[in-house]
Every structure is written in C-alpha cells, then in structure tokens.
Amino acid sequence: MTLNVLFAGRPERWDEYEPALTTALAEAGLNTRLATDIPPGEVDYIVYAPNGPVSDFRPFTRARAVLSLWAGVETIVDNPTLTQPLCRMVDEGLRLGMAEWVAGHALRHHLGTDLDVRRAPGDWTQRTPPLARERPVTILGLGELGQTAAQILTGIGFPVAGWSRTPKDIPGITCLPGPDGLKQALASAQILVLLLPDTPETTTILNARTLALLPRGAFILNPGRGPLIDDDALIAALDSGQVAHATLDVFRKEPLPEDHPFWRHPHVTVTPHIAADTRPKTAARVIAENIRRSEAGEPLLHLVDRAHGY
Amino acid sequence: MTLNVLFAGRPERWDEYEPALTTALAEAGLNTRLATDIPPGEVDYIVYAPNGPVSDFRPFTRARAVLSLWAGVETIVDNPTLTQPLCRMVDEGLRLGMAEWVAGHALRHHLGTDLDVRRAPGDWTQRTPPLARERPVTILGLGELGQTAAQILTGIGFPVAGWSRTPKDIPGITCLPGPDGLKQALASAQILVLLLPDTPETTTILNARTLALLPRGAFILNPGRGPLIDDDALIAALDSGQVAHATLDVFRKEPLPEDHPFWRHPHVTVTPHIAADTRPKTAARVIAENIRRSEAGEPLLHLVDRAHGY
Lengths: 310, 310
What we know:
16% strand, 30% helix, Rossmann fold, homodimer, seven-stranded parallel β-sheet
C-alpha cells in the first residue's frame, strides 16, 4: 500500500525537503507518495509548518497524524479543526543548533567579545573575565532543548540551574521546580536562558517583577518564544542596568518590525529566528520514523499534549 | 626554618599576589617570609615573571627553584645566568580561561555572531550555520592547554584533531604527530587553534606554505605565541580569502604597535593578550605546591625541559 504524504510547509522549502524526505522515507522502509498537491481526502500524513498553506484540517478525513516541522506549536494547538494527533518537531539538528546558539552567545557575553569585535586600533585595555565556573547560568525550561543546552553549558564549565513546571532530576544540573523554584533560579542567574514553550502559563514570565529578581547586570538569551518576555519591562530593565544585555532570537511579531526599539537599543542583539532552524536532513528522519511508528501501531514521538499546549 | 620567597613579578601585581600567595603558602603548611626586597643571597625561592625586575640569577646563590608565573618561558629559557630549576606556570585558572577563550571565539566564528553584533536595524537575513559536528577544528599543540581546549570543543560537538611533535593518545581526539601529521591536521582545519610553545622548531610554523594547506575560508585562533605566525603571510592569506578571519591574542611585539596592519584589517580581531591570564588565587596554589614538593624532595611540577625550550 502506498501512503500519501502531503508536504504542507512553505512552498519555497520544498526543494530542500523533497530530497531529504524522499531519502528518509525510503530508509524507513516506507512506500510513499510525497507531494504538495494531494487531494485532502486522500492524504494519510500531513508534514506541516505553521506558516504553510494548511489551516483547516477538516477536509483531511483520513489523515492519521499531523507532523509539524516546527518545535513551537502554539499557533496550531488551539485550532478547532485539528482532530488528528499532532507531533511537534524535536530535530536533532534543531536541538544541537539551538544549544550551539545558546553556548555561543553565553560565551560571547561571559567573555565580553563584543568589545574585541569593536576594539579601536591601539586599544590594549586588558580585562580578565571570571572563569565560567564563577558565572551561574539558569535555563527556564528543561525539555529536550533545555537539557541539551544545559549539557553543553555544563561541559564548558558553567554551573547550570534549570527551572521547569514539574520536578526533574537531571545529573549535573540544579533542578528547581514550581513557583518557589523560579524565584531561586532567577536569583542566581548571571546568564538567563529562556527555553520554555509559549503557553498561557508562560506568557510574559519575564516581566518587571521577575526581572527584578535577577542579579544586577544579568545577561538574557531568548531563543525560546517571543511572548515569554514583556518587551517594555525588558527595555526598562536594560535602561536601568538591571539587565546588562539581551540577545533575542524570537519576537511577538516576526520579522521584528523595523521600528521596534529592540533594533536600536545599544544593549540588545537581535538574531532573526535562526537559533532553532530545523535542518531538513535530520528533521526528515524524525518525520519518517513517526510515520513508521504510526503504521506499526507504536506510540508517536513528540506527541503534543493539548491540555498543556505543548 | 623560615623559607625566604622573593616575589619578582611586576611591582603593580604585588597587591593581588601578596594575599593569594600568603594564603596558599600557609595552606601548604609552609613557614615562609614572602617579600619583594629580600637580599639575593638569602632567597630560597623566586616567584618570577619575565617582565619583572630579575634578569640576572647569579646573585641568588642558594635559590632552589625559579617558579614562573607565566606559561611561556621563551624569554628566560636561554638565559645563561639561570642555573636553578625553572618551572613554568600551568595554572588551572589560566588553563580553563584559555580554553574558554578558544571555545568562545571558535563558536563566534562558527555561528558568525559578528554579523549579529553589527546587524543593521530591520535586517532579517537568515543564515543557518552548519552544526558543530560538521566543522572540524584542529589544535596545534597538545600540552595541558591544548588538551583542555580540545576537551571543551569536543563537548560542544566539534570534531577535534590535534597535532604534536611526539605521538599522543587522547580519547576523543584525532592525534596526528610529526611532519606528516601536520599536513593532515591542517588539511581538515576549518578552525585552526595555535597552542604551541615558542621554540626554534615552532617559529613561523604558520607561513605561506602551511597556510596554503588549510581548506579555503578557514578561521585561525592564536592564543599561543606571536612568533608562531608569519604576519605578512597571514595578511596575504586574509587578503586572498584563503583565511576568512584571524582572532589573535599574542604578537611578536606587545602591546601590538598601533600602526601594525592587524589592527585595521577587516578580517582580524585583536585581543590584548588576555586569553591566558594567570589568576592569582589558582596560580598561588601551584607555586606553594612546588615549594612544598621541593622541600619534601619530591619532583617539581611543570619543570622546564631546557633542551626543548619548554
């Protein structure tokens, strides 16, 4: 039997994804027809991106799963037309790339390399940064992305604490769950990394009140989700020196509007949603594995829990 | 018996080193007099820096060791007045700080964060870097500094190869010894890290011939020693695009003269000899341990092999 797999990502990504998916589906031993124009009633699996062409899932009467290419599913999780199982992407390439972005920007702030990049000719001013082991990092969110970032940061020498809604036990990381844990996690965070999903509970988790709990002069990295931050409160904290610098990869509106104050703030670095770019080769393997599992009656990977929104 | 320990570093470092050494010597159970003005004939141990006040060791007739605060000993190793055992500094703080500098600048070039630091308002150009595992790094020099850097880079995900004069066997690192190994190590080096000592054999190890062996567009990090590089050959390689960028911490003349072309080259980042700053607290423990060993008749740590110059 041939399985009909619809590619419902952005059309301009098809050239990259078509060969990657074709290879991965064949390697998984699946007999599939992969295309962008299958009649909805004949589609068995939907490879989905939130910025792609599909938003009404009702015509896909026999689709057995919606397999997202994105890690974040907040724009689809409340879609009332979606009755099929929804899987988010946890791509090894995305996961590792995200952790590398976090490690690179954490070290950039830790070492103060912006000063070197902008150093004036002849300026021989020597500053010695503390060692990484004297620079505590806190990660909000200890899912697969948070855990991978924590592991790389720990390997560099940073002491890492992590906060999550529910208690976790991860070797080498101080895990601080629940509301009390959040206060404690923020109080020691010389570098704060946001890797939470966007849910009603996490929206503006970084606001005037929580920013005030950070040690003065903290650095903030947000490769997670734009709505985690109250933008105005962050700008006030940057202006007062409470936060030394923020490096932000995600925003409430993307692309970040050219007149948003983040673009010109001297203590903000904007990266254009590149921290967690799904890599077609590794992502295609996850898609293929989930189709294989679905056909074999095995549990799907990275199935979204609609009640919690991720 | 009280041991007389002369501090022969730069006078302006005394305020930092005096408390650190006093604490470390006491913790090692040693009864010492630490000062900057002990008559040479009464000195038992010399805590030495190449830029300090001592260059003639002949008056120190009873000194049992010269304990350098610097990792590099090329300016003292050929001093004919030095007849005492010479130990170089291998400070945990220096070692870790150096590895953090290497990791930070390796990730800076890997991710291309200079583009983010200099990004114009509204520029949403998205580039996805390869994963670290697709970016081979080569370290020339597999001493304690090279090994520590290799370990941190491996933890981040970079495939690491290392070259050393003599064969080494280090888990997780491809070790390539001798002249043939050097060619192989350079051929795969998308990022090349120089952590060799400065000896007659290593001077201008990076020259027109060896630069041509690198893959086109390689990045170079030199936290090792200035004379390892033929400056003119490097500038030619940067101008031709053979080398994409060089981040240099050490130079033939320091401070790097304001008119040196490195300062204004668009593809060179100068850091002012900060990668391997000895940290007084950790360095003082190494000094104290060596005095304890000397007094107990145990082998000294980090004893310099004069024949090889390091």
